[in-house]
Amino acid sequence: MTLPTRDDLIDFVYHEARVIDEGRFDEWLELWGSDSYYWMPLDYQQDNPKNMTSLMYEDAFLRKLRVERLNGLRTFSQKPKSRCSHVLNRPSIEAFDPKAGQFITRTAVHYVETRLDDQFLLAATVHHHFEMVEDELKIKLKRVDLLNCDAAFGNIQLFI
Amino acid sequence: MTMKYKDNPQAVADLVRPAEVHRDLYIDDEVFALEMKHLFASTWVYVGHESQVPNAGDYFATDVAAQPILLARHTDGEVYVLHNRCPHKGTKIVIDRTGNTGKFFRCPYHAWSFRTNGKLLAIPLKKGYKDTGFEQSEAGQSGLPPVGAVKNYRGFIFVRMNQEGISFEEFFGGSLSSLDNMVDRSPVGKLEVAGPPLRYMHNCNWKMLVDNQTDTCHPMVAHESSAGTAVEIWESIEKDENTKTPMAMEVIAPFMSPYEFFEDMGIRTWPNGHGHTGVHHSIHSDYSAIPGYLEMMVEAYGEERAKAILGENRHNTVYFPNIMIKGPIQQLRVFIPLAANKTLVESYIFRLVDAPDMLLERTAMYNRLINAPTSIVGHDDLEMYERAQEGLHSQELEWVNVQRLYDADEDLDEEAVENGTTERQMRNQFHAWKKFVVASMEAEARDLTDA
Predict the structure, then answer these.
(1) Residue-wise pLDDT tens digits, B147-174
(2) Which end of chain A is more exposed for a tag (fewer CB within 10 A), N or C?
(3) Shortest Cα distance, chain A CAs vs residue B65, angstroms
């Protein structure tokens, strides 16, 4: 079995952010492993995605739905489309355990999203949990903790 | 600025016609100030749930009628609703949304302290007030003042800001059956708030959100991009007899139901602006049964009663003026008015005490899929509201239409069940809006004359 290097993990995180920023969402869907989740908790240090509300907790079906919707003709909140920009701090390796198949990075992110005359900035800490699927690195869990998770937001329409 | 509506109840009354309402109800700052003072102060407004303050000293802070309010659990076990304002200099006593203050509140500015029922406890260096007439002053007498009236209805805490006014029972009448159904769905008749609420800022008037709760002609249009796409994706996936419909599909697909589905579901209205969609069935009717739940309910209530409770699938119940509940999934949304063009929406979910966890899992999923600032359903709703808030600034057209299935003989002071696409419930809300605002303005005018 091919193993990832530490640099592979770091490069992946930068690559993923770029794919989102460039609106290559179909490509983004391919970065995920089986039974994988995109999780954005609502509560500070939330430990369970199911027994309380989250902002997002999305499996492959829901991620695909989001991306297909962005491409749709009657997606009114995306006329005109939103754009986004990620600024990433260098990811740190939080776990690198080939035996257990555990690879985790932590990345501090500043995220800007814009549409029409509005633009907003969010700060987040992002944990990527990876797995190897047929010798390819894939996301198993992406956890996005917003610095101001308890604030009232307007629409957040793309992916942090 | 000349005042067009203040001290002019007739001008306010003229804003609401039987089947159309003037745009100033949505965009005018003066009307907004009047409705805070006259509507939100004279009706029963939801504050919070008792499970948010389970222990003595627990508090929860929010806004009612654009005023800072505090809900506190006193040592006697009662929940008190107080003005969150130090009688000394005006400082808000608590600034965080929730917490425990111990045996008393202590103002962080000059350390005046108050019992958790609001009574003044102590003032440092009190001798400085000796012989000053302080005892006769507002500050010396008031403590943290209670609101006009409080009602804890099966754990849900409502207030009337005014001392005098309509009773809780008269105001809500038969509409309380929706809250009853939500609570009865717990085998022990008890709910608990589960986690923090979603908080979603809307740059639109609060009434647009309330109108939307019983607007059954928008889901298949505004939500085609989310629900319609979900159905398309699901249909394109290869399935066999073992393929289970995912919970997310059960939640989102019914939004694409045809007009006939919504027509047949029915709408019921009650006097004073309350009403609900989903009389006969609703988008919540066809959820999969949760293993073991029915058995628990039968055990608790007997078969007939348990089936009656679970057979009720009301969709959205509006408690006028500004909350909506979904009994079948234990959700409550509060539309907190901040300005004519600004509304904070908080969406809470509840755990049914002693019921299977999977019910809460589905409710949490519903909340984030439909009502989060990150929700693809919520995105399109907010887009519609904000477009309307901007569109209403056109000087060419003055009225917002609520005429669908209007009958000139309709009596909104009578309970009725009608076709599920009627805008009767919207008319009912505006009828109540006019009734309470105008009555309060007229009472104020009489008081001024008497004085």
Answers:
(1) 999 999 999 999 999 999 999 999 999 9
(2) N
(3) 19
